[in-house]
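Do me a favour: review this protein, sequence plus C-alpha cells, and tell me how the chain folds. Record follows.
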Amino acid sequence: MNWFVIYLWTRLDTIQALLCMGTVITGVTWAICLLCWIMASVDGQESDVKKIKPFTKRVLLWLVVFVIPFSLTPSSKDFAMIYAIPKIIDSKAIKQDLPEIYDMAIKQLKKKIIDKEGGE
C-alpha cells in the first residue's frame, strides 16, 4: 500500500461528509425549485415556468452528481474492513501460529452472517 492510498483512507470520512453536505444543499434547492415550478404552473404563469424549468433540471442533475458518489463512497471503517479482513484471513501467522483464534474468528463471522440473514 503506497502513501497516497493511506492518505485517501484517512480522508474518506471527510469526503463523505462533503458529499453529504452537497447532497443536502442541492436537494433543498431542488425541492424549492420544484415547488416554484408547480406554483407557477398552477397559476398559469407560462413565462415563469419557462424560466424555472431549465434551472430545476440543472439542479436535479447536480443532485444526481452528489448522490451517486455519496452512496458509493465507503467510510474509513468500511474501507478498513474491505482491506484488512482479507489480509488477516490470508495471513500465514494467523492460520499456522494461532489456529484457535483463526477458528474463533471464522465462527464469529459465520454467526454474524447467519444472524444478519435471519434478521432480514
